[in-house]
């Protein structure tokens, strides 16, 4: 089983100087095949919408690193690991800057970037960046159009949602066109995955919250819808995020992975251990332990 992990970008470990670089380097050396970031701009004291399962926001989000910086740091200290995001709240960023950031990270990593994008759920974060939350869907569609142009055309000109890019030379291109994966379980989100994305970002929880056929059935429908849209259904990738609740034993995580990975057959699987560790050392120790437990599965 190929296995990756969340970088320590949230919680106490995220405040450790040099922690992301050290973890990324040593996790890859231990056998991690992918390294991942999430995206949290704010942890409001009294959020308009609370984090799912909480009355407010998890304490881990009180400390949050910039996802692009973390990916760039990881790119500099690793050689082979896929560098992914699950997810970056893409519509909270200025599109031209966003396109340049992704391109630069892919170049720095020699083509190892897997951008997992979403539209976020926090009204507080949208208010902080001055973007209407109601425009999330059309802004994501617009961004996907821009990224395709940015990565494939010698000159870029674009009339976007609230911005204009004059015809410009954009000679910096990714080492290979990054495969954009999109998050979501809603009808509109899944339709966008089937019709526009290179892959899907499903989520599995440990302890398990629903049967595996919720994911396998959704993936089968996605691929059928992709085929109806004239796309190759087999080309739709899957990057599985495994969220782990506090206090979960490593053995239970490994057992759950042994169940969901053969059923879903994702291209990439990573475990988000944010809620299980309080330091970079603990982050590393748990990652190594999970690699050992899943080595023969």
TrEMBL record:
Main enzyme class: oxidoreductase
InterPro entries, alphabetized: F420-G6PD/mer, Lucif-like_OxRdtase_Rv2161c, Luciferase-like_dom, Luciferase-like_sf
GO molecular function, one term: oxidoreductase activity
Positions of the Luciferase-like domain: 7-260
Name of this protein: TIGR03619 family F420-dependent LLM class oxidoreductase
Annotated EC: 1.-.-.-
Matching Pfam families: Bac_luciferase (PF00296)
Taxonomic path: Bacteria, Bacillati, Actinomycetota, Actinomycetes, Pseudonocardiales
rRNA-binding keyword on record: no
NCBIfam families named among the record's database cross-references: F420_Rv2161c
